[in-house]
């Protein structure tokens, strides 16, 4: 190869190296801004992250990090208030109204049901939630005292 070709190749490699460094720096600054830090805690790493990493950062906690008791309590209160105003809604509808992922409602709703503050009607994805233990009414839940089954009389 000629001397000119070698110089061109060296210039291209230097440019790519500089560009790579700038891209890494920009990425680290973006992560630091998302975490709310000054960037000192962010360590330069290699390669890609899991797809949910950006979403976890956007929620304000790291991927796989547990929610604090305050976050759970706030979600629990929001769910309870919403269900009191809009009885008979499913998890997807509640999540959409509260603008949170439905998976983030599983634990708070489970705790509310266990505490008797919410009651359910239906099963699995068809489950509807109601305030208190009254639920959707006794007759609709088969609570008519068993009279429908009744005993057959002999003639």
Query: Main beta sheet: strand number and arrangement?
Result: 2 strands, antiparallel
- What characteristic shape results from the CA principal axes? elongated
> Strand-residue fraction?
5-15%
**Which whole number gives the mean pLDDT?**
77
Q: Segments where pLDDT lies below 50 for 5+ residues?
A: 39-55, 137-147
Which fold name corresponds to the CATH topology of the largest domain?
A: Arc Repressor Mutant, subunit A
What order do the SSEs take from the amino end to the carboxyl end, as H and E?
HHHHHEE
| Fraction of residues in H or I helices | 40-55%
Name the CATH architecture of the largest domain: Orthogonal Bundle
Broad structural category: mainly alpha
User: Strand sequence of the main sheet, in spatial order?
Assistant: 1-2
In total, how many beta strands? 2
Q: How many structural domains are formed by the residues?
A: 2
Radius of gyration: 28 Å
Termini separation comes to 111 Å
Assigned CATH superfamily of the largest domain: Winged helix-like DNA-binding domain superfamily/Winged helix DNA-binding domain
Number of helical elements: 5
